[in-house]
Specification:
20% strand; Beta-Lactamase; 391 residues; four-stranded antiparallel beta sheet; 13 strands; 2 domains; rod-shaped; Phosphatase 2c, domain 1; alpha+beta
Length: 391
Amino acid sequence: MSVRTVIILLALPLFLFLAGINSALLYDEETRHMEAGLRGEALAAAVTVAEFARQANDPFAELGEPGRRAALRDAAHKIPGLASLYLSRPGGPLLSLLDTPPTVRAGLAVPGKARVVSDWTDAHGDPLVTAIAPDGHGAMVVAEISAKPLVRRTFHLKRLSATLIVGSAALAVLLGLMVARRVGRAFSRTRAIIEARGGSSDDAALGIREVRDLADAIGLLDKSVASELRRLARRPEGGLDEGIAALRERHLPGVERIEGGIALSIRPLPNAPAGAVHVALPCDGGWAIALGAAGGQPAEALAAAIAARDHVAAGPASAFRDRLDLAARAFGVEWRVVATGVSEGAFALAADPAMVEGYRALNPGLSAGALTSDLAILFAESGIVAAVRPA
């Protein structure tokens, strides 16, 4: 998996998640505030008229007088979106205080105190916010405010949320490409340094420590994303490749050991061939290490690799090379790297030994595990990388 793909796959879900959370919070806050405002206006209108009615001996007669009704109508017109305002007694008369005929709500009972009831719709299906308030004479005042502004606001908020999410996705891809280009240039410079077997005098070039930090970060991202992709791609009917990979992980795992104060790290890489094999034994003053590959069809190559590893590992370090020769003849393994008595060094199954050793020499402070982690990034095509360092 390329560095560019890794960074984009990590950045894109993160940006989409943040944009989605921000959009949801904005939508919830704006709609709640606007709905609370509409409910408050409806409740205020109902309570105000109910207080007028409470002071009257006969609310229907006094509020129905042309002068008072006209005054209430003029005041009601100042409330934006007020759709209907009327005085009603269940099973009795109804007095509309506006010019428009009200929509009678069946089932409304006189409440004990003013409150907002369930939202209704008008004759055209447009949403309304309804509030009722008792007048103290067995009747109630009903005020209904159109909720069209809330509907328009929610529509614009949804459109804004979609724009934010799409914009965040584009920004994530753009930033991912920029960072990937920067990291790619850093890796290229590092390889150039290794090939030259020395430091760079270019002040603009990234230092080894900065490249190491980038390598560590990309290694972590690659591991996270690759494991998730493997989980999503896994199927019960997995084919031969999946089976080979699972068996390699089980029977030819990586090695992290310390013997006699010397640390060993061997890291098989995801693209290692089915027959790739590694074996190591502690010996006087260090480690005996061999990296190789068995040929043939994948299943046969894997079986030969496991058998060769078991044969060599079962013997003493003194017979290490003899057992390697026998395994090569018996199982068809080509040993590409063989070293004994190693106390410090770096190796790869399929990479330029000078470049691998050059990187080790330029980073004397790295542990064996950190060194193989870097080599796995810089030489991803190597199949297997190994390092030995004093613990």
